[in-house]
Amino acid sequence: MPALLRVEDVSKSFPGVQALRDVTFEVERGSVHAIMGENGAGKSTLMQVIAGAFAPTAGRLHLDGRELSLSGTKDAAAQGIAIVFQELMLAPNLSIAENIFLGLEPRIAGVLVDRTALLTQARTALARLGVDLDPGTRLGDLTIAQQQLVEIAKALVHEPRLLILDEPTSSLSEADSLALFRVVHDLRERGVTILYISHRMREVFGNCDAVTVLRDGRHVRTMRLSDTTPEEVVRLMVGRDLADVGRIRPDEGERPVVLSVEGLGDGERYRDVSFELRRGEIVGLAGLIGAGRSELALGLFGAPPPKTGRILLDGSPVSIARPQDAMALGLGLVPEDRKGQGLVLGMGVGANLSLAALGLGRISRAGFVRAGEEAGLVERYVSRFRIRTPGTEQPVGLLSGGNQQKVVLAKWLAANPRVLVVDEPTRGVDVGTKAEIYTLLRDLARGGLAVLVISSDLPEIMTISDRILVMRAGRLAGEIGFDEASEERIMALAALEQEEGAERRAAGR
């Protein structure tokens, strides 16, 4: 097949950072072409150059044999290029329908927005992805995963000939990811070319035709996936072999209960949730989108507090009315939405990293920061987590997604918690960093920390967890021990109610 897109000697620099250096490769028309590399390799920067968000410092782009000169993303869209960013570009105060058709609203006599047509067309766009949401719902009321699906639906409305998907499944459950892959395959059959950024080897090898590997802003190799292996791609990405991060059987010894949750509920998103978390163990929390996992995590942290039930630490009831109460009791939360809830994007790496320790008074006296202690703490954790940054004053919002995730993790560990809740720990993180985070979490548990990990990535939750809790429709549907864990068992518990509901509806026809 002839090339739809040619990237020729493209470079991009920012103040103090050379993000891309002389990148050259081609993308076949009607193919799904993966772009892979570690965090900071330049993947997202390259995609934003192709989508018109950034102008290249040097080099050229060709689409259908013609040189592209893009003035912005609208110009790119007019030429058939659409992008779904990893970090969502939506308006939270508008409805789902208004977000999908922003600037393209159907109108009556070319003046008034046709609300009926808008909702109907939005419902059709969502159905294309297998999404059952009321298009009139305010976008800000959705989970991050649901917003991700809306972002994808918005891109498809433009009927692009080149679609760029930047980590599209990073917040999606297994079922929603499968629905997305069906759409990807359908688009390929219709001749749409797709650039697909992902760190997940299984989905790349299962759904893509070719791969381009970047490392340190340079092109390493482009090849057909049928001619390579996941192991070779990893070596090309990181420049070394990675240690195998397999499942590790938990210790059999009795461990004291640190956190107990009894009948916890907020009256809407999660109800009657009870479980125990022991010292030195990692408990996984699985479930489909909308099951209430992230809301439960925020409830444990008092943001907002649950309306029913109680929380016990070391067997004693505690009151957590706000995040400060949770922090004082030794709880830490790495939230799903790292940009909106985990970081202050305009502040430096060091200021973000020391924020929790500072809030607990660990590095201050009489209201004054002990600058030497803060600098020492920041230096230790930047080194320990291998955070790639030009300096600790660098605004954290300018780091890659994986390095931002490391800063959020480091921030909470610097506060020395007893219980750590981690929601989607490796969202948007490369394979090398993912292995580092798994090892880190295991080392923390081995040191006595109680860890609750929420993840939509089933292989991940099986790899990291000593046992797995599954939520369904706001309630705990069951617990799976280490020896019984399988993707099929997790999905059976997570989706059972939906399947039963479908059977009841079918029987009622």
Overview of this protein structure:
With 509 residues, this protein is α/β, with parallel strands linked by helices. The protein is 35% helix and 25% strand. The chain is built from 18 helices and 24 strands. The protein has a six-stranded mixed beta sheet with strand order 6-9-10-3-11-12, with helices on both faces. Strands 18-21-22-15-23-24 form a six-stranded mixed beta sheet, sandwiched between helices. The model is unreliable at 497-509 (pLDDT under 50).
Main β-sheet description:
6 strands, mixed
Distance between the termini: 47 Å
Categorize the overall geometry: globular
Q: What is the average per-residue confidence, as pLDDT, rounded to a whole number? A: 88
**Percentage beta strand:** 25-35%
**SSE class:** alpha/beta
* Tally of alpha and pi helices: 18
Helicity level, as a percent range?
25-40%
**In total, how many beta strands?**
24
Strand line-up in the sheet with most strands:
6-9-10-3-11-12
**Rg result:** 23 Å
Assembly type: single chain
Uncertain runs are 497-509
